[in-house]
Structure formats: C-alpha cells, structure tokens
Amino acid sequence: MVQSREDLIRQLCDAWIAAYQRSSSSSHEDPEKFRLHKNGIKFHELNYPEIQIACTSLSKVLLLKGMNTVISLDHQLFWAWAGELFLFSLPRTFSNEERYVQELLETCVLASITSITLSRQTNPLGFNEKFMLKAHLILAYLSLPLLEAILKKVCKAYVDYDGNVIKPFNVQGRGGNLKEYDPHSSSLSQRKCSSLRDLLHLFYKDVSDTDLKSKLDEMRKHLSTLDSTKDPFDLIYEWRNSSLHGHTNFQTIGGTILNLTILILFSQIRSDYERVRDDIWKTVQSDLVTYRSSGVLSPRYYLPFLVAKKLDKLVAEF
Predict the structure, then answer these.
(1) Average pLDDT over residues 129-153
(2) Domain ranges of the chain
C-alpha cells in the first residue's frame, strides 16, 4: 500500500524529533536525513490537507522543550511558499483597507527567510548583517501583532480591527467562568476586545470548523509540551504581554506564531486552495524562464529563495 504524503510528512517530522533527541545524548545519528525536502516533499505540490499537515508538523520540529528553536531549510521553504500564496494570489488575500496587515505579513515572511539575501558573492553592509542576526527577534516581536490582526480579520463578524465588539460572544476566563462580550453593554471592557487570548478562544470556539479545530489541537498539544501548567492560548497571551511591555523577549517563538497565523490563513482559501496553488506555480515557472534568460529575479519569495539556496535539483525539476 502506497503511503500518503500526509502520513509521510508526519512520520518524517516525528523521526527527526526522535533522532534529534538521540543525537543529543549518545547516538551519532544524523536527524537531518529526515528533513522533508530531502525526502521528495515539495510544498508547491501539496494539496490543502497536506499543506495543513506540513504546517502543524513543521511546528513540532521548530520550537522544542526548553524554548530551543531549530530553523531548517524546510521551514524557510515553507514560509517562502506561504508568502507567495498570501501576498501574490488572486483574488487578493487582503483588501485595500487591510494594507497594513498585508505589510505586516510581508515583513514577517521576509524576516523568516532573511538568509536569502546572503550568498558567497555578497558582501553586505554591517547594517544588513546586523539585521540578519536580529531577524528572528524582529519576527518574534512582529508575529504576535500579526496573529492578532489575522484573528480580527477572520473573526470580523464578532469584532473589528479596533477591537470593537460587533456581535455578542463569550469565552472561558482563566478562572473557568465565562467572560461575556456585548456591543450593547454599559461596560467598556465588554464592548471592546483587546485580548489576544480571548480572540484565540473566540476563533477556536465560534469560527473554526471541525477540520481546523483538529489542526489547532495539534498546535495546542505541542505548545503544552513547552509549559504543561498553562493553557496554550494563555501561554501565547503571556508571550504577547511580556514582549509588548518589554519585560523580556522570546526570540525563539516567531516561527511558531507565524505558523499558527499561516494555518489560520490557509483555512480562508480552503475551497480554492488548489486553484490558487496552481496559479501561483505557473507564475513561478514563468519567472524561472525570465531568470534563466536574463538573470533577473522578480521581487517575490519562493523562486528567489530556491535560487539563493542553490537548490539545483529542485530548480531542474521545474
């Protein structure tokens, strides 16, 4: 029986974790042999269920116990592909009024794949070198407001971008009691939602469907391995507050928060994903023809990343 790509992606990521843990003790096994791109997984070929699994599985091999992060070529390829999908697809992911959200996503994607600007032939200015060293700290700071903005976008029936409540809803409070929101309440705290935690609970409870809930549960389960004493959404809320108020920074969390945001955005094009994927891929192929004839790369994400990383095998298979 032929193994599905969904199962293969899960198996490879689980095998990487097991090999990584063994290599940290006594084994000399190389966990890198389990990377997706080394086992025939190409993100531009995946269908909707497969790209969802790639998102959740890559999150498990990104942020590990002890808040250690291991960013691989798999992650950067995935982020570059997501950037293509959400920033260049038609119809557009973001309206004119959401331009600032689009720019925030663009900045996060650029920070996540910032190493594409380096090559052996490049001698960047010290400022650029410093930026690249700090790119994932920048991503950690910007990914949290990006997540909040995307949650407001997808929960627009309940709350607007300013946090004004449009439709009544409730979420479970930290003490277990229900926290009510109502646009007609005399209390400002009930008429306005400014809590990332409550937006996460609103999205999970009232907006996401059964399929997406199962993927969110995978993300929540992984976050619980980082701190089992807190609800995963409470943990994200604490990261947000600590970063916002300058108490501390969690420079390792940016990729994980970006993946959660991408998972939510995927759900918004679920019924149209394969068409969007194919349209974007045709454009990438066209850009490749231009690059091979003129050496000029379009200012996008996926193809420039492949070229910068000298992925000749992948490029040859275009």
Answers:
(1) 85
(2) 5-150+213-316
* Burial of 7 from C-beta contacts in 10 A (0-12 / 13-18 / 19+): exposed
Lookup result for tokens 């999908």: 85
**pLDDT value of residue 125:** 42
| pLDDT tens digits, one per residue of 198-239 | 999 999 999 999 999 999 999 999 999 999 999 999 999 999
d(CA 303, CA 285) in angstroms, rounded, equals 9
Angle at CA 313, nearest 5°, toward 310 and 314? 85
The overall longest dimension of the chain from CA atoms, in Å, is 65
64 φ, ψ (degrees, to nearest 5): -110, 170
Is 137 or 166 the better-scoring residue by pLDDT? 166
The C-alpha atoms of residue 149 and residue 1 are separated, in whole angstroms, by 44
Please compute, for residue 102, the number of CA atoms within 13 A of its CA located in the half-sphere on the CB side.
Answer: 14
Residue that the structure tokens 């627009």 belong to? 156
Q: Is 126 helix (H, G, I), strand (E, B) or coil?
A: helix
pTM of the model: 0.91
Q: Which token pair is 252?
A: 């390792």
DSSP code for 2: P
Helix or strand holding residue 179 (H, E): strand 178-181
Is residue 119's pLDDT more than 60? no
Nearest to 267 by CA among 151, 163, 105: 151
DSSP 159: B
